[in-house]
Amino acid sequence: MLIYTIKRFFEMVIVFFLFLVISYLLFNAIPGNAFSSLLLNPLLPPEAYQKTIEAFGLDKPLYERVQLYIINFFKGDFGYSYTYYPRTPIDLIAERLPRTLMLFSIVNVIAFYTGFLVGKILAWRRGSKSETWITIGSVFSYTVFYPWFALMMLWFFGYKMDWFPLGKFLVPEKWYDSPYTSDEIFYTLIIFVTVSSFLLFLIFIFTRNIESLQNRRNVRFLGLISLFALAATYWTNGEAALKRFYAADIAYHMILPTFTVTLVAFAGTALLTRTTMMEVLKDDYILTARAKGLSQKRIRDRHAARTALLPVVTSFIFTIITIIDGSVLTESIFSWPGMGQLILEAVVQEDIPLAMASFSFIGILALIAHFIADVSYAFLDPRIRIKSEN
Amino acid sequence: MVESLLEVKNLSMHYDTLDGNVDAVKDISFTVKSGESFGLVGESGCGKTSVAMTLLQLQPDNSVITEGSIKLDGKELIGLSENELRKVRWDSVSIVFQGAMNAWNPVVKIGEQIREAMREHYPENSKQQNINKINELFKMVGLDESISERFPHELSGGMKQRAVIALALSCDPKLIIADEPTTALDVVIQDQILNEIKKVQDLLGLSLIYISHDIAVIAEMTDKIAVMYAGSIVEIGPTQEVFKSPKHSYTRALLDSTPSIRGEKKKLRSLDGEPPSLINKIDGCSFSPRCPTPTTQCKNQSIEMRLVKVGDDHFADQCCSGCVKNE
Amino acid sequence: MDNQNVERDIKATLKKNWKLFKQSRLGITGLTIVIFFGFLAILQPILFLTNIWDEATYHPVVGYDAEQVARTVVECPDQYPTREYQTKEDCPKVDEVNIRYLKAFNIQVEVGDIYESNVQPAPPSSRHLLGTDSLGRDIFSQIMEGSQVAFLLGLISAIIGVGISTLLGTAAAFYGGKLDTYLMRQSDLVLMLPTLPFLFIISAFAELKVWHLAIVLGTLGGLGGSVITIKSQALQVKVKPFVDSARITGGSKRRIMFSHILPNVAPLALLYMVFSVTGAIASESVLSFLGLLNIDMSWGIMIYLSQTEGFIFTGLKYWWLIVPAGLAVTLLAGGFYLVGRGLDDVFNPRLRRR
């Protein structure tokens, strides 16, 4: 397992270098030499020109420029943003990245889990009326034109019903006298979510060895309750109690985007789970499981769904990029000021350093997500795990 | 003590398919006594596996049991709810499936898959108790204890099959149904597995239903035998008796197509033709088109297929019971 | 082999597959939708050529038609909600006109009068089946133009993509070794490329036409994940006995690849092609929706226009600006997807019910 992870990691690093080189060449190939023409940008003072030329080595040959770009990438030096001068691209990304990460990870976990759950039920209830309708619904949401659908959702829930805010990630009025910046609250939220999901994972792992199913269920339930209690204590005491108000504001703004993306993104997973699960249900070991007298639920969850999960995870690896793409759209429709909006803005304003920096960072994000999915796939499938060890 | 553990009476079952009804099991009756081993023999597609599946109600969704009763220890199984059936499965009756290769879930460890069944039927057992029991079973079928922690794809075919036997024994069943357990194995391993099953059966005093197309194996394994053709039992009786003086010409044909080591040298005869499709309703004797020794009775379409007594505890189908003249 | 036999074989296979495809209700639904949009795409040039539609009025981009609509004159209240109007945006309704607005132009009318004027966007009428947009252009004609763009782009990019991935995937499976390693790493790289930001960048700095986009999308799709899938399929075919026997009888590598392996990979490739049309249509719409494409008219642009002009938040009041275009993208993409599902049933026997 470890060897596999390390091997995969090195492959990823190589791919990442290639990615950096190609993205540089891509920018370089833009007709009319984007850098030189944009250096005439009136927003930029003369010393910034000098800095940009130096940072990108614009007076040097292509080979050295590529080298310089890679070195700069690791130094985090991209010169200045044209539109946000004197802020640097790294500065802007550091501000935007947590917001994207927060929305992106929560949405994906929810969408993947819902999709898997729905697909499981679809395959299990094959031939029933509800299956037909859910399938039709899933096909619709799989192929619906996402921006259009998101706008309609925004119109209906945000405007017509007025249940949720119309985009943005906070209500500025509430934050006038705030002792915290939104970034601080974001970091608190991210840490909170990470720690609680880690605890949840620990509960799950440690209860795996309890033999009696009844006891196992009870212990898990107890663990969940205490986790909730812990979370409640955290938010009512100390500094977190003060932050609570602002955190709630951000969380409230996250509901509609999360809901919308989930509605659209769950369908792909659901349809694939349904197909793979239907294949798995024909396998002999399902019959063995039935003969063993296991409960329907256990056969479905433990035997059928567990095996059907593998191809679903594989395809999830392939679709991570699509999801990142989707989050770019989500951000621009719900005016969520994250990485996606940043890159769109940079492209429209022809802000080359910013566009390059954010493109590379989105690349890293995709790479990391890809890596995690890959390793967890190997963790799920013993056949790969063993093969890589030998 | 001789009492019937399993009593099957007039069992009929068909599959509902797009092309029409397939009558896989037609009016079958037999009993299995405690500690007895019962053989079910017939060509591929004659409905043997369907019988096995129906005994535990594991048949596919498109099958319909039209009539009959299955009594296990005096308890009727047909009509039980899924939850009631779950208690019977594995606890009283376990199955060794046709393709043991695929009987294991590829992503779950062997030990865990066995423990899972035990957890279901012995919820009060501690983990250590279960592990001890598995180790004991593994020793009995000749496997190493470390197998528990392995995944199915790490085992050879023979090891998987042994593990399946251990799995079948894990909840102390009274009856084991072995559905062609050795089909996918090579001859040497086949023999070992057969010995293993026999040894375990004697040791634990279990009843066994052994299903195979190989009449030689059945002869070695069983006390009583039923011969199936096109969904119905055509001959049933004590194994010795049936082998010595088969009364149905299909049984005769089956015996003739198998070489015998001890007996005198005989020319092997193969049976022409193919078993009939079960989709079409068959009037009269279903075997008559292929019968090597047809009589006038065979062609009679109005005659019903029914078992009649031909010897001590030995029954054969009435339309063909006279066909065979024993040399 | 004589050609007639081969022809008959192909015909028989097609007939059998069609029979299987017909059993899939979803597949047939999809096919109907695709054919419907195909018909729309062809219909528009025919209407222009036969002069049933004159270009000055119905042209999707430069056409103009000022439609006279009779509307009731009302006075909008200052306070909301009232009995008739929920919010400020509800007044005036589509068939009403605010008296204050007319007064501003010094038009003398009374509340309750019928006032005839040019309106844009005009609601659906017998002249304009789906109404007109804010520039007086016929929406139905725009939808037709949009389906031409969608078909052109979808099919070109799918053919390019599938062509590339089939060739590369088969080659990777057949030659293995360094070529295989290289192609797989390349697929990894393409898979990791954030497609949308990548397209943003390309489209922002180069003026993208439909053709360019089709080539870019096709190449990206062709180098990505489908190479891996096609390769694994080709690997399965490669170990089949008939390939061995072809090799033993002395067939050259290239011949075996083209005459034995490719035809067996073709069904999967066709499946990919159909699914990738869905992706291409969606990508185009997204890019035009963000205003990054240099195209005169497409479904994405229609939604883009209705959003930038603020019609989205009028809800269903100007539904003909919002709903037809969005539905068209959804339906055609969905139609191709359903056809793919139907084909999947044909080529993948494990999914069949019995």
Can you tell me the residue ranges of chain C where pLDDT is under 50 for at least 5 consecutive residues?
none
- What is the molecular shape of chain C? elongated
The proportion of residues in beta strands of chain A is: under 5%
Shape of chain A: globular
Strand-pairing-aware structural class of chain A? mainly alpha
Overall number of strands of chain A: 0
Largest sheet of chain C: 3 strands, mixed
Low-pLDDT stretches of chain A: none
How is the largest sheet of chain C built, in terms of strand order? 2-1-3
Helix content of chain C: 55-70%
Number of helical stretches of at least 4 residues of chain A:
15
**Whole-number mean pLDDT of chain C:** 80
| CATH topology tier name of the largest domain in chain C | MetI-like fold
Secondary structure elements and pairings:
The complex is a heterotrimer of chains A (390), B (327) and C (354).
Chain A: H1 2-28, H2 34-38, H3 46-56, H4 62-75, H5 89-124, H6 129-143, H7 146-160, H8 182-206, H9 213-236, H10 238-280, H11 284-291, H12 296-333, H13 339-348, H14 352-380, H15 382-389
Helix pairs in contact in A: 1-14, 5-6, 5-8, 5-10, 5-12, 5-14, 6-10, 7-10, 7-12, 8-9, 8-10, 10-12, 11-12, 12-13, 12-14, 13-14
Chain B: E1 4-17, E2 20-33, E3 37-41, H1 48-55, E4 63-72, E5 75-76, H2 82-88, E6 93-96, H3 110-121, H4 127-140, H5 157-169, E7 175-179, H6 187-204, E8 207-212, H7 215-221, E9 224-229, E10 232-238, H8 239-244, H9 249-256, H10 296-299, E11 307-311, E12 314-317
Parallel strand pairs in B: 3-8, 3-9, 6-7, 7-8
Antiparallel strand pairs in B: 1-2, 1-4, 4-5, 9-10, 10-12, 11-12
Chain C: H1 3-23, H2 25-49, H3 55-58, E1 67-74, E2 96-98, H4 99-104, E3 114-119, H5 139-175, H6 177-192, H7 195-205, H8 210-223, H9 225-238, H10 241-248, H11 253-289, H12 299-308, H13 319-347
Parallel strand pairs in C: 1-2
Antiparallel strand pairs in C: 1-3
Helix pairs in contact in C: 1-13, 2-5, 2-13, 5-6, 5-8, 5-9, 5-11, 5-13, 8-11, 9-11, 10-11, 11-12, 11-13, 12-13
